[in-house]
Structure formats: structure tokens, C-alpha cells
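INFO worker-7 received task bundle
INFO bundle size: 2
INFO processing item 0
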Amino acid sequence: MILATAFAASGPPAAAADAAAISVFAAGSLRAPITQAAQAFEEAHPGTRVMLTFGASGLLRDRIAAGERVDVFASANMAHPQSLGAAGGWGPTRAFARNALCALARPGLAVTPGTLVQAMLDPAIKLGTSTPRADPSGDYAFALFERVERSAAAPAGSARVLAAKALQLTGGPDSPPPPAGRNVYGMLVASGQADLFLTYCTNAVVAIAEQPDLQRIEVPSAIQVSAEYGLAVRKDAAPAAQAFVDDLLGGAGQRALREAGFLAPR
């Protein structure tokens, strides 16, 4: 089982075979809080295990649409689970968390929130993003480019310039797999593949914990893009799946999300 919570090995083999299992697909940015919530849920519901798979939300959505059996889908946007619901077989999409964008900067790069737009537009600075459509983080970054265009801080045509120069370094179907046990965004900046990388603020916190010399640059409110996370349950999922979702919406899951830096849903 790949990317799953560990199941207690102390019981007999028959116990594992008889245990209720919940299959959860979740956005990669949710790895820490969802893993914590799953462990708490297993402790509170003996005999139930939560199997977790993390990745870019758009790619996970495509796997579900192609027929993979999943009970719960926790996406970094509302659109992907909503599209599954529109196709039938899934319950309503419910918002359960919010995130914001930050810029992760290489050591020594002279950039502040006030000079972030100028830095992103600088031809000499490599600007990294995730892959739009496959990974909502990339969609949010490109939405930020449009906000730059409409702001007073940049010249006309800035959105086109930023979209053209943005290096879509992760989150796509052909992107190299993330390094095991390392934050991919911190690795991309620390290795010099990007000087600036637009990612979720929660990802920036994890990256800097691994690479303390990296910089987290706050995005000015005038161009900030709020990321709303949504989740849905398969209509024929076991009751335990709905119980796990209820926990994410208002129990230990919400506490884990706050601890990881996610904002409360609207």
C-alpha cells in the first residue's frame, strides 16, 4: 500500500483482513494534517484503517474518473470534486479549509512583499509554479498573474509575460516524482531550478523547516488568491467514510488543519 497510514501490526492477520477500510485521495498539500487526522480516526475507531494516497488534485480526479475506487476525495479546489458529483455517484462537495499563496525564494535573493511583482517580472529571475489544470496550485498561481495585470503595480501585458516565463516544474502528468521524504518546492528552489516559486503558504512552512535558508515572501493582499479546498464522499461508501469526513469538517481533522496553518472554510 503506497502512501497509506500504517495499520497496527499487533493484531492477528484475520483482524487486518476483516477491518473496515476507507480509501482517501487527498491533495499533496494536505499530507501532514490528513495523515494526523487519519491516525486519530483509527485510534477512535478500532478496526478501521484509513488508506491515504496523495498527489496533484487534478491528476487524482482523473484517476477517479477513470474508474479507481475511492471513498473520499479531498481536493485543493472545489471544482474537481464538483465535477465528480456532476457526473453522478458522488455526494455534494463541501468546503473544509482554505489556503493562501506565498512565494518561496532562494537564499540571498533580494525580494520583499513590496518588490515581489518586480522580481517575478524580472527576466533574470526563474519563476516556478505547479502545473495548471493538473494541480490547483498552478491554477491559483496563474490567477495571481491576472491579478497582477489588473493591479497598479505592473504594466499592461504583465499576465502574459508571467504566464510565458513561468516554469511549470511539478504537479503535472509528466513531472518527475517528488523526492521521497522531501518537500518538492523547497528542493526545487534549493537546487536552483527556480529562484522564486509560487506555492501554498503551508507548503512554504514545510519547505523552510527542511531548508532554513530559504525565504518565505508574503503575497500582497491586492494580488492574493485564496485557495478553497473541497471534499466529497462516494455515495455508496461505507458509513465510516462519512464519519471520517465529518471529523475533517468539525473534529480532530479541523484541529490538525489549523495546526498545519490552513485557514477555516468560509
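INFO item 0 finished
INFO processing item 1
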Amino acid sequence: MATKQQNDRHSPEYYTDPNNSIGYLARIVFRSFSRLLERGTLTQNVSAGQWRFLRQLWLEDGITQRELSERVGMREPTTVVALKGLEKAGFIVRKKTPVDRRKTFIYLTPHAKKLELILAPMNAEIHEIATRGMSDEEVIMLQELMRRVIENLADETRQLTALSEIKA
């Protein structure tokens, strides 16, 4: 038998309070992280938006523009604009290969590679602040729950994409 709380959790009235909305709470967390992170990254002339791309390229350099766009979770036109800014700032170079001229590969400059050693500790510090008072187990559980929410939403998004392709 479902408890009263479980039933309330699904009622539209429950979500009229933004503090019960996972989306609202995630947005507040994201904005707070971004503001604090940018306070540090701007000392190296890196915006929060640029940080997202650099972080993915630090994990794997030399990926295609499309792969980078997917990993950052942005549409390709937005990524193109961001990459122009990153290139102008001297953080990346874009290269096409003779094999497939349609694909553009993104590579970090030596300067951008060195920035990881400066910026990664700033990111770690913000995570320490955000998880203050939580045990290691609670942090792991929070990460697991957030990943589950992301996957649940990704499943729905994939279904929407499939439906729109069928209708087209």
C-alpha cells in the first residue's frame, strides 16, 4: 500500500511548491555551481560556458565537434558558436581530416591543457563546499540518484525524438 507521502508526491499540487520540484532544485544547484566556478575560472579568462567544453576535452582530446556537442549536452549550432569563442581565446584548434572533410575534430592547445591543473582544483573546492556536512556515502548516493534522474529523463527524450521522426 502506498503511503500518503508517495501519493502526494505525484499530485500536481505537490509541485506548486518549487522546493518539491527536482527540476527547480537542480536549476538552483546548477546556477550556484556556475557562479562559484566562474568566480575562479574567470581569473584564467575562462567563462563557465567555456569550462564545460574544456572539461570534456580534458577527458578526451581530439573528438569531433558532434561528439563534443553531445557530451556537453548542447545543440550543434550552439556548440559552433562556443567553439569559435574557444578558438579565438586560444584554447582549441579545429581540424578536418583528409579522410572525411565533413568532420571537424577539436584539439586543445598546450595553454588549455595546462589550465586543467589550475581549474580542476577550483571545481573540487566547490564540490567540497556543496557537499559540506555530507558523508562520503551520502555524496555517492546523491550522485547515483542524480544519474538515475538523468537517465530517466534521457529515456523520455529518446522516445520523443523517435516519435517526432515517425511523424516527419
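INFO item 1 finished
INFO post-check item 1: The two ends are 43 Å apart (CA to CA).
INFO post-check item 1: The chain is about 65% helix and 5% strand.
INFO worker-7 idle
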